Structure formats: C-alpha cells, structure tokens
Hints:
six-stranded mixed sheet; 2 domains; mainly beta; single chain; 7% helix; three-stranded antiparallel sheet
Amino acid sequence: MRGLVKLRVYLENPHDIENFENLTDSNGNPYRLKLKNPIKTDWVAEIETVTNRTHAELLRNTDLFVTRDDLPDLDSDEVYYHDLIKRPVKNKAGDVIGVIEDVNNFGASDVLLIKPIAGKDFFIPYSPVCVAEEHDDFIVIQNYEDFQS
Length: 149
C-alpha cells in the first residue's frame, strides 16, 4: 500500500472529511485527504503529503480534528456528542446527581457514562426511556436506578 492509510471516520457521511478546510492533527499540522475504499467500519485514504509506506506508518494512531466552524449546522433536536461531555445530569426532582463523563456505542445503541456525585459510574441508554429532557446546560434522566451498581 503505497502511502495509503487506514482511517476511522466518525461522520454521518464519511466523504465530508474530504471537504474540511481545517483538518489537523493535535500539533496543528494540516491534512488534505481522499477516501478510497471502505474496509468494514474504516476507510483506506490517501493523504496529499504522504507518498510512501514509511511516512504512512509514522501517522499510525494519529487523531485528526476539525474546527467547530467546519461542522455542519444541527437541527434543533440534534447534538454533537462532545457537547454532552461534562453536562450536568439531574433527576426528575431537579436534583443534580452527576455529570456525563462520556458517550459510547458498544454496538447496540448509544450509551451515556454518568459520573454521579456519590457512588460508582454507570451507563444508561441514550434514549427517551432514560433521558427525559435535554437542555443546553443539563439533561434530566429517569428510570436509571436499575443501571446503578
């Protein structure tokens, strides 16, 4: 594979990554790329400045980032997962019970990792069964007691 890399893309439309103006690594180095072929959940991609396998291997485990301005606007009922991280979590009575520590998907559906004020961290489904309300600065959860250890 001459200068090609395997890439995991976390976008609704993976080809959108080809059009981002500000695609960089954690050091601010810019990248332009073209997706070639899908491989299960990943893609084979060609990076503009990578011309050989040695250079491609140096990029192994490199995270790429875009600026928020490059992301598409959301509908009113949508949210970027990174905006949920550290958002306070309240119960139906209005008491703050913790914060969202992470958002994951282990295959079946999205789950929120809740870091409670007291007790062990726990996961809840990111669905109306457990998430009663979503606000810009907090969420309200319900039916979560069975998920606590």
